[in-house]
Amino acid sequence: MKLKNFIYALACLAILFASCSDDEKENNVPSNVPEAVLKAFENKYGSIKEVQWEQKKTYHVAHIQLGLLTKSDANYATAVWFDEKGSEKQVNQEIEFSQLPVPVKTAFELIQSKLYADWKTDDIEIVSRLDMGLIYVIEIEKGKEERKLSFSPAGDLLKDVIDSDEDILPVIVPEEIKALLAKLFPDSKELIILEIETDDDETEVDILNNKQHYEIKVDNTGNWISTSYETDMSEAMTLIDPIVLSKLISLAQQAGIDLNNPEILKNTEVKVIDHTTKGRYFEVKIEIGDKELEVEIDKDGNIHLDD
Q1: Is 148 exposed, middle or buried (0-12, 13-18, 19+ CB in 10 A)?
Q2: Rounded to whole angstroms, how far apart are CA atoms 102 and 106?
Q3: Is residue 239 domain-shared with residue 299, that is, in the same domain?
Q4: 283 pairs with which residues across the strands?
Q5: What is the spatial order of strands in the sheet that 59-67 belongs to?
Q6: How far apart are alpha carbons 301 and 161 in whole angstroms?
Q7: Which domain holds residue 244?
């Protein structure tokens, strides 16, 4: 009897160790993952048992299977990024082309038909970042060449760059940027930060404000430089001084372009820029068939032809 009890005890221990081993394989929690991170993960994703952890830069990344970020659906490969304090900074999720919003599909297919007709789509991701909006990242390839195109949910192309196989890292929005945006858009009902890029001289912030895409530039000390957005000629005509507009129409006619044509108005690109020293000015690009006209209208109403 004692022998049977001893064998039974050994069997129970074997099962217990095997179970612990399986849990370790499923969760694979490295010893360097802080308790704060594990607690944050447990609080939000506690029902998910299969987790693989890895460290990227200063972030702890949990690889899990999760329903689609934009709605409840089947599970998709998902990476959740935490900082050392357990704050969730970013979620990356691999999806199928069919899961892309219609505006993103439409914008991508238009760009592909014009620039990348012989390229194939590869990986597609939704990226959700703290203090920022969703972006959709589509990787395309042709032979050994690879590119990465990023879109807003509305289908705005945010980036078209060579794919260097580097991870899309979380972007921390500085408090001074948040304060500046609140000052620039005090009546905003919906302001979403899409992208922040910084170089030696300035920081560029792409946002959606009430579904309108804006580009804000600040210098390296946080001072505002400019705010710009794109529109069509029909709206721009309500912003440009009538006398200046008359001169522009005349100039276009000399180039064989009729700015009274509704179709031409619709397809004319206008960038409206408010600048700290230049004031408000306009960049107008008219391209109809083989006819092209690019001008800049400064704050004083002078029209400058683009060489």
Answers
A1: buried
A2: 6
A3: yes
A4: 271, 296
A5: 52-56, 59-67, 75-82, 88-94, 120-129, 135-142, 145-151, 157-162
A6: 36
A7: 227-307
Instruction: Specify if 167 maps to a domain.
Output: no
- pLDDT for 108-128, tens place per residue? 999 999 999 999 999 999 999
**Are 64 and 6 members of one domain?**
yes
| 85 and 36 within one domain | yes
**Would the pLDDT of 261 be above 70?**
yes
The count of domains in the chain is 4
Model confidence pTM above 0.85 = no
Is 168 within a domain? no
Q: Is residue 74 part of a domain?
A: yes
Structural domain ending residue among the three candidates 48, 65, 94: 94
The three-state DSSP-derived secondary structure of 71-107 is: CCCCEEEEEEEECCCCCEEEEEEECCHHHCCHHHHHH
Distance from C-alpha of 35 to C-alpha of 82, rounded to nearest angstrom: 12
Task: Give residue-wise pLDDT tens across range 90-105.
Answer: 999 999 999 999 999 9
d(Cα 72, Cα 69) in Å, to the nearest integer? Answer: 7
Apex 169 CA angle, 25 and 79, nearest 5: 30
| Res. 23 pLDDT band, cuts 50 70 90 | very low
Residues 75 and 18 in one domain: yes
Q: Where does a domain end: 65, 94, 123?
A: 94
pLDDT at 1 over 80: no
Using left for φ > 0, alpha for ψ between -120 and 50, and beta otherwise, residue 255 falls in alpha
Rounded CA separation 250/269 (Å)? 18
